[in-house]
Write a structure and sequence with these properties.
Order of helices and strands of chain B: HHHH
Strand order of the largest sheet of chain C: 1-2
Number of strands of chain B: 0
Helix content of chain C: over 70%
Shape of chain C: elongated
Helix content of chain B: over 70%
CATH architecture of chain B: Orthogonal Bundle
Oligomer: heterotrimer
CATH class of chain B: Mainly Alpha
Strand content of chain B: under 5%
Chains: A mainly alpha, B mainly alpha, C mainly alpha
Shape of chain B: elongated
Structural class of chain B: mainly alpha
Radius of gyration of chain C: 39 Å
Number of strands of chain C: 4
CATH topology of chain B: Helix Hairpins
Number of helices of chain C: 40
């Protein structure tokens, strides 16, 4: 079962990454691009987890954890920059 | 796969160098960041590439990749963060003091000659 | 051992005046005086044994590989020289204490003086060519500091620089000469050289060694053509001039020639080099001195002349010459020192030392006048002073030697120089003390005993060396000569004032008569000769200096035009060329390592990377977007680290990435948001080509390495040792905190230092132009009125404990699983900084009370403490100790000292990063505050109207 699901999962995530990248390149607004990058981080998290499942290892799950935390933080920082300019007021 | 990593190093180096050659402080900072990525990846890859063989010792592990470049690059990442932080601050202070963020003297000499 | 102390006392004593600078002038002077006195007493305690013809020696190995020992040897010659240095030094300390103004930093002055004294005594006692050189350079440096002591005077700085360049340059020649000499002789020990005299003088390299040593001595002793620095050095405070530039330092060259006299003298080379230059200097100095109106300049040229006299006498290579030199060394130190001190008194009391302004001082300063009269009489060689004795001996010695085949030429030169010496001495005295008082001398007052006493003591000894020549000067001279001749077969010396009527006496008489006439008629004919006699050495020096500076400036401006892009272009082209040369012509070849298969996902990711790189460049003028693109590049790199088995790197990269982003966004708030297009298309394509070449080179390099196998010994060793020696299964972390723990320690130092630099840079922005700009900040982007959106707040506050928990988790597992102090530190930092971002600085600062400075400090102390603890236990710095526990409920637990080290790392990281970010945000808060104030003021104004 897993052997079938994993390739499908990889294919789906690859497609998602590709679409993220297209949005990132085309824009047109900064918000679009930031959102695309944020989604890209989320897809990366999924990719790492999927990779871990496929390799039967948990060694990379902390990376996914940090990606989750810091992807959020980056997005907050970008958003604050866009709405206020000064990110620590 | 090795070819792709080499390609990545080359691409990031080229981007970094191009940005370094710009005339304003901000692109130059970005250029150093890019170059840092490239150099770190380069140094890291000196231990050769291996998939799913992290140097964390475990029972029944199927071999480990070279930990030395990893330790070196880990240090390099942190140190380059320190230096990046310093040049960012330097650029900021320079801009606040001089009202220009150029990284050459071209602007000032023109102004000087115009005044004199 | 006591010999070592003689040198050690001045050097260690040099610390005292600096330390006592706050305890007052008197304390400084007393400390200096006591140091000098102790060294002098210690020196003189050796005198009885030495005058019996023996010598003391002590030697410690310093750099045995090159034959450099700290070898000291005290013989008669060294005793004379060191005695002069310390004895006169003591008088100078007293004089300087009274001479220098109340507001001048006496501590620094006396420190320099003692450093000089130590180096000088070192020269006198050194028995190793190389350690002598060290002391020699020491005197040059100390002299530089002392000449330039009055830093506000341009002449002082210029004079100091010139003296340093000339004597330092000569020092270089001397080093070469000494090394050559040591190489020829096969020993660096000076006292062993004499025995190898024959071998040295027959060597084909002897002339070169001699010339190089001569250049060193000539520069130091201000011999023609290097004499010009000495008059310039007169910008120094007068005690310095008296001490360094007449009594001691300038004698170092003469001393060294005397020291090497038994080894090097007696050849044609020696005679024609040393004696000729000495004779020229002797004549030149005494003629020029007559034309100087500035008393210090006059004395400077007089000193040059007397140094020439001594050099000439040594150059003769005869015993009579050596004896006369040493006697004159003693006499000159006494009377010229006294004369300088006299000029200092005149300057101090009247504010002038120009002969054209002075006159009639006898009425105001009779004691000073008497001292000057006696000193000048000795200078002119009048009986019954010591100067007369040595001059007679000089004439006697010279008359026995023929020069360039002419038997009377040297004698004639000496007589003419002597005549001029009488003339300028007479002019000095008549101009300063006789005649009508100068216009501006009304305020002159009597000098204190501290100024007159040392001068009087010196001049009395100059008198005593003549009057009581036999009981006083003779034993000193005998001891010195015995020391200088080395082998103990020195002649017995008899000093007598009255030799009967002979050639020297007749010549002296002629000189006194002629000198008197010259001085008397001087005003009539000076204008005729003045221009012609302007000595050009100084001008040549200045011209050379100017040329050198202008060439350097030209080169600098050509290559160092202030454009970073230019420097980088040169640098990169150079690196590419060198790299290309190193692989040319064979080229790079890829290896035959078994490669990893390429998969679709990897292809996709590299495409994303390429796109992000391209977009970073294309969007680089829209700065926010280019940062975003660079972030994507970083993201893909992190994925690469994960895929290629480097989870630790991925963790670090991800965390550093976001901290860097916050930092850059904080800065970008104040920077322009867009970059204007400036570069021409040609320039852009040129840059692109260069960048492409660099990229291609890196690609090729990486490919060549990755496609071939590399060594794995080190990796295998570390992986094997990680658990048994380091006590952790995460090899990367074990390397960081244990095997290469010192690197990591230095790394957190770097982080701490950069945080402090940032703090300093931003703290400085709170004043001046930067602060002004912040106070009138105008926001250049549209701003939402909502400062802290509620959604952000409620979400992130809930996240804080979770994030901190992740930090603790990363920290605790770091030694065995991916993680560690760095990552944990960054996680904690980000957890905190998010609160700042979302809830506002005010809110967060009230709740997070961490003193970041002390966190940095404690972190480093903790890390260093672990290292030191292992040293105390007898292991190398930062050796890891670990213990395994089985605890109830918690299960098995590994406790290792590396955890404490890692805690230090964590604290430093948190402290450093938070300090940097918090200070960056300070700028924004200042701008905000100013804007609010302005808004309130505007509101008030509205209401008022």
């Amino acid at each position: 079962m897993i052997a079938i699901v994993i390739p499908i999962g990889f294919a789906g995530l690859s497609l998602a990454l590709l679409l993220n990248m297209i949005r990132l390149v085309r824009g047109p607004t900064a918000v679009d691009r930031i959102l695309a990058a944020d989604t890209m981080v989320i897809n990366t998290i999924a990719l790492i987890i999927l990779y871990g499942i496929s390799q039967k290892t948990t060694a990379y799950f902390e990376s996914a954890l940090l990606f989750a935390m810091f992807g959020f933080t980056s997005t907050v920082a970008y958003c604050r920059f866009l709405i206020r300019g000064d990110i620590i007021e | 796969m090795e070819l792709l990593v080499a390609l990545a190093v080359g691409l990031m180096t080229a981007t970094g160098v191009y940005l370094l050659l710009r005339k304003r402080s901000f692109p130059v900072i970005l250029g150093t960041m890019m170059l840092t990525y490239a150099v770190n990846l380069f140094l890291f890859s000196m231990g050769r590439l291996a998939v799913n063989r992290p140097p964390v010792i475990q029972v029944g592990g199927n071999g480990y990749t070279d930990p030395v470049p990893q330790a070196l690059v880990l240090t390099a990442i942190v140190i380059s963060f320190g230096t990046t932080a310093v040049i960012v601050t330097l650029a900021l202070r320079a801009f606040l003091e001089a009202a220009t963020d150029r990284v050459d003297l071209a602007g000032t000499t023109e102004k000087d000659s115009a005044e004199s | 051992m006591r010999l070592m102390l003689i040198i050690a006392i001045p050097f260690f004593g040099a610390l005292l005046p600096m330390l006592l600078a706050r305890a007052g002038r008197r304390a400084c002077a007393i400390a200096t005086g006591l140091s000098t006195l102790m060294a002098l007493v210690l020196l003189l305690s050796h005198a009885p044994v030495i005058s019996a013809g023996q010598a003391f020696a002590v030697s410690h190995q310093w750099v045995p590989q090159v034959g450099m020992d700290l070898a000291l040897r005290l013989d008669g010659l060294g005793l004379l020289m060191a005695g002069l240095i310390l004895g006169i030094g003591l008088l100078i300390v007293i004089y300087a204490y009274h001479y220098l103004g109340k507001d001048e930093s006496l501590g620094a002055f006396f420190t320099y003086l003692l450093l000089f004294q130590g180096s000088m005594v070192g020269i006198a006692l050194a028995d190793n060519l190389l350690s002598l050189l060290v002391f020699w350079e020491g005197t040059s440096l100390a002299s530089f500091l002392l000449i330039g002591f009055w830093r506000h005077l341009t002449e002082g700085r210029q004079g100091a620089r010139m003296a340093l360049i000339v004597t330092g340059g000569g020092g270089l020649a001397l080093i070469a000469g000494m090394l050559l000499l040591g190489d020829i002789a096969g020993t660096m020990t000076i006292s062993e050289l004499t025995a190898r005299r024959e071998a040295i003088q027959q060597s084909s390299r002897y002339p070169l060694a001699l010339l190089l040593i001569a250049v060193g001595c000539f520069t130091k002793s201000a011999q023609f053509p290097f004499h010009f620095w000495l008059p310039q050095a007169m910008a120094a405070p007068t005690p310095v001039s008296a001490y360094l530039h007449s009594a001691t330092m300038v004698k170092a060259g003469v001393f060294l020639l005397a020291r090497l006299w038994p080894v090097l003298s007696g050849t044609e080379w020696w005679f024609y080099t040393i004696a000729s230059m000495g004779a020229v200097t002797f004549l030149l100095g005494s003629v020029v001195a007559l034309f100087k109106d500035d008393l210090k300049a006059l004395l400077a040229y007089s000193t040059i002349s007397h140094l020439g006299l001594m050099t000439m006498l040594l150059g003769l290579g005869t015993e009579a010459g050596l004896i006369a030199t040493l006697l004159h060394l003693l006499n000159h130190a006494a009377f010229k020192g006294a004369l300088f001190l006299t000029v200092g008194i005149i300057d101090h009391e009247t504010g002038s030392r120009d002969l054209r302004n002075l006159g009639g001082l006898w009425r105001i300063l009779p004691i000073t006048g008497a001292i000057a009269l006696l000193g000048l009489a000795a200078n002119a060689g009048l009986p019954p002073l010591g100067g007369f004795l040595s001059k007679e001996m000089m004439l006697e010695a010279v008359s026995q030697v023929s020069w360039w085949g002419q038997p009377h030429l040297l004698t004639a030169i000496a007589a003419i120089a002597g005549t001029f010496a009488v003339a300028y001495s007479a002019r000095f005295f008549a101009g300063a003390f006789l005649g009508e008082p100068g216009a501006d001398l009304e305020t002159a007052h009597g000098p204190s005993w501290g100024l007159v006493g040392p001068a009087a003591l010196l001049v009395v000894s100059a008198l005593a060396f003549g009057v009581f020549a036999q009981p006083l000067a003779e034993p000193i001279l005998q001891t010195a000569v015995r020391g200088a001749m080395g082998n103990g077969d020195a002649p017995t010396i008899h000093l007598k004032l009255w030799h009967g009527v002979n050639l020297p006496l007749i010549l002296s008489g002629v000189a006194i008569l002629g000198g008197g006439i010259l001085a008397g008629t001087f005003d009539g004919w000076r204008s005729l000769l003045k221009r012609r006699l302007a000595i050009e050495g100084q001008r040549v020096f200045r011209a050379c200096e100017w040329q050198l500076v202008s060439v350097s400036r030209h080169v600098t401006e050509r290559f160092h035009g202030g454009s970073l892009a230019n420097y980088l272009t040169w640098f990169l082209v150079g690196v590419l060329a060198l790299g290309g040369l190193s692989v040319w012509p064979s080229g790079l070849r890829s290896g035959d390592r078994q490669l990893l298969p390429i998969n679709v996902l990897a292809l996709l990711l590299i495409t994303c990377l390429a796109a992000a790189c391209l977009m970073t460049i294309l969007l680089h003028r829209r700065r926010l977007l280019s940062v975003l693109m660079a972030n994507v590049v970083g993201l893909i790199t992190s994925i690469g680290f994960i895929y290629f088995s480097a989870p630790d790197l991925a963790l670090t990269q991800i965390s550093v990435e976001v901290v860097t982003l916050i930092l850059i966004l904080l800065a970008l708030y104040f920077l322009p948001k867009e970059t204007v297009a400036e570069a021409s298309p040609i320039q852009r394509w040129r840059d692109a080509a260069l960048a492409g070449l660099c990229g291609a080179a890196m690609f090729a390099l990486t490919w060549v390495v990755l496609s071939s196998d590399g060594p794995t010994d080190l990796a295998n060793y570390l992986i094997e040792q990680s658990k048994p020696a380091g006590g952790g299964s995460n090899v990367v972390n074990v390397i960081l905190v244990d095997f290469r723990g010192f690197d990591t320690f230095n790394e957190i130092m770097v982080l701490a230092i950069s945080a402090l630099i940032i703090y300093a840079l931003l703290d400085g922005a709170m004043h001046g132009a930067a602060a002004d700009k912040l106070d009138h900040w105008e926001h250049d982007i549209p701003r939402s009125p909502e400062k802290h959106p509620a959604m952000f707040i409620s979400f992130t506050r809930a996240l804080l404990p979770l994030a901190l928990l992740v930090g603790v988790y990363m920290f605790l597992r770091g030694h065995n699983q991916p993680g560690g102090g760095f990552v944990a530190g960054l996680v904690v930092t980000i957890a905190l900084i998010v609160q700042y971002m979302v809830s506002g600085y005010q809110w967060a600062a009230e709740r997070i009370s961490i003193d970041y400075h002390s966190w940095i400090g404690w972190g480093i102390l903790l890390a260093a403490g672990t290292g030191v603890a292992s040293m105390i236990l007898g292991y190398p710095f930062l050796t890891n100790a670990h213990e395994h526990f089985d605890l109830p409920y918690l299960g098995s637990l590994d406790i290792s000292s590396a955890l404490v080290f890692d805690l230090g790392v964590l604290m430093t990281v948190v402290g450093a990063v938070m300090l940097a970010l918090a200070n960056l945000s300070r700028l924004g808060r200042r701008a905000e505050r100013a804007a609010q104030k302005a808004a309130e003021a505007a509101k008030l104004l509205d209401r008022g109207e």
